[in-house]
Design a protein that fits this description.
The protein is an alpha/beta fold. Strands 1-3-2-4-5 form a 5-stranded mixed β-sheet. Helix 2 links the parallel strand 2 and strand 3. The mean pLDDT is 94.
Amino acid sequence: MAGATVIATDADFEEKVLKSEKPVLVDFWAEWCGPCRQIAPSLEAIATEHDEITIVKLNIDENPATAAKYGVMSIPTLNVYQGGEVVKTIVGAKPKAALLRDLEGYIETKA
């Protein structure tokens, strides 16, 4: 079974995200963000159910350099990284089913 979400910081972002062998979804979030807290259980579930993608959380208040580097202007912003590059950006809170649809091609979906 897959692990749960991983915490990243400015210091280890390159190692945990950019150098990853598999796709990584990074949740740019903050404690004060209601929609961020709203999608957290869905991201945790996806992390547990799909070991073909890594779900990483990066707190923008504690790690502003990475958020600024990738132009994160509103949260939640979810970036999918593959091969060290952003390949998809999802902005705003969505239900789990919508997140899974957005991640098609990066995760195995069960019919």
